[in-house]
Amino acid sequence: MSRVSPTGDWDGRSFAHEAFAFSADQELVDRVVPFAVEGLSRGEPVLVVAGERVRTLLTQELGADVRRLATFAAAETWWQGGHRTLHAYDRDLRALQAVAPTWRLAAEPTWLARDDGREWSRFEAVANRCYASLPYYSLCLHDRQRLPASVLDAVARTHPLTWGGSAPVPEPAYEDPQQFIRSVHPAWVPRPARASVAVLTTPREARRAVSAAALGWWPARVGDVVQAAHELVVNSLRVAAFAEVSSWTDGDTLVVEVADSGPGLPDETLGYVPPPGGPDGAGGMWLAWSLADDAAVDSHPAGTAIRLFFHR
Amino acid sequence: MSALRRLDAPTGLRPGDHVCWTFADAADFTATVLPFLEEGRRLGEHLLLVGASRPELLSALAPLPGRDELLASGQLEVRSTAEVYASGGQPSPAEQVTAYRSLVDAALARGRTGVRVAADVTPLVRGGVDGRRQLHVYEQLADALMGTVAMTALCLYEASLGAEVLGPVTLLHPDQHSGEEEPLAHLSGRGPSLSLHGEVDVTQADGLSRALVDVACGTPGEVVLDLSDLRFLDVAGARALARATQVLRGADVHLRLVRAPRVAARCLGLFGLHGEETVPA
Lengths: 312, 281
What we know:
The complex is a heterodimer.
Chain A lengths: L15 E7 L2 H17 L4 E5 L1 H11 L8 E4 L7 H18 L3 E5 L12 H11 L5 E8 L5 H10 L2 E3 L4 E3 L6 H8 L11 E5 L2 H13 L6 H18 L3 E8 L2 E8 L21 H10 L2 E7 L2 E9 L1
Parallel strand pairs in A: 1-5, 1-6, 2-3, 2-4, 4-5
Antiparallel strand pairs in A: 6-7, 8-9, 9-10, 10-12, 11-12
Helix pairs in contact in A: 1-2, 4-5, 4-6, 7-8, 8-9
Chain B lengths: L4 E2 L11 E6 L2 H17 L3 E6 L2 H7 L6 H7 L2 E5 H6 L6 H17 L5 E6 L1 H4 L2 H19 L4 E8 L4 H9 L3 E3 L7 E4 L5 E7 L1 H15 L4 E6 L3 E4 L1 H16 L2 E6 L3 H9 L11
């Protein structure tokens, strides 16, 4: 058996992001136990957040060393929607960064098995960009018995590393985060003729216009719709003299589009980058994305249009 | 507590009203103060007009019915800004407000129904950053005073001062007139704590941060800001509150945000702020 190198040539100074999919118990043990042991031997904080099956196996295999883990937590209670989950995770990371030069994490996002948990792959994709300089190794564990093929496919496309048997190797299916995000957003279809359209120069006018549209659709979500659209309009008005705000319903879905003739959006992934941090306007994109049920971006040098989708 | 409103005319005002009014030029100034003072005359109020130059003010008042009788009886006073706000060195904002309180008491004792002041505050803004800081403290204390005594005030500012100067000042008034602009927010000192009313978005974020820092930094310890009447807060507004909180911490002031509506709490959370005792609105 060749010598196992659990983190390959990772130097502990930047982000490494590996997806490991397992079926048999032994497969999991052979990957995670050396990973944890290596971290402990190097004096790094080792964190494990996983489902019950993984926790049970690790407890058996690591024995007393389980108590040396910086965190050993159940993943089942972590999910609170993509944005909230990432925001909480992000705060933990920043706290860790303040006290540790490097650390490693074995995490099982068990919620990928839920319909409403699949959006997590978007955050996994964008993490490759926004966490690129954080000094930790994230080993993401995926149970083949619980996850459908479509989710495992998204996992491969969002993790640059996979397990090669004795060391991490590049994942051939890995995609650029922006490309992945585009592929999972709703298709950009032409705006229907029935859409109501307003051209606005202040965010206040935009709030009034969007509020009127949302009230006729579902009063209970007016606050979310107005806030989300407002943040997009504010961003538009940073780069353009006016914003075009349109809205329409498609079945039970309200679509709000904010378009401008600015220079295009330099980074289409900002809606998945937790605040604070990022340029002016990034916090507004994060908030808008978190309030909406889905989003889509059409950006080119002559302008940007962003659609937010709200499901009734 | 008076609700935030946009004022289209300088009339229909009653004690407790505190108006921020931007004017374009001398003609606009005159056209604004005349109906304001005339209304006060009809209500039996003591009238005070304050501006840069007393002679100019007197000539501006020429069309006011019974101007000379009002002046002779003492019901109408005309004074220069320097005389009112800077006599005897540099009176503190608190001393100025005390002087207004005494003026109200004296007017009531003479049988007037209250005091009505129209003041061109523009000269005070020219005092640089320190002068503006003092002005913000003063406007806030004056606003709180007007919540408790029979006083109506029209604070006039030249529109050419620009948004950077007018932003924080406007926010400190519940009644606002600024061209066609709809007033959005009021930072009030009326009531047991500071409170923020209306809508705070990116257009007032800088002004809010400055006004809040200036009015709170003189009181080390805890300053409570009640957010329960906030109808809208955006990310830029929350960032401004976060910035103010941080600046105030440097002055040993702990700004405590309370009773944030659910929508505001969401934005505040982005900056690690909490609007404790969140109200459901």
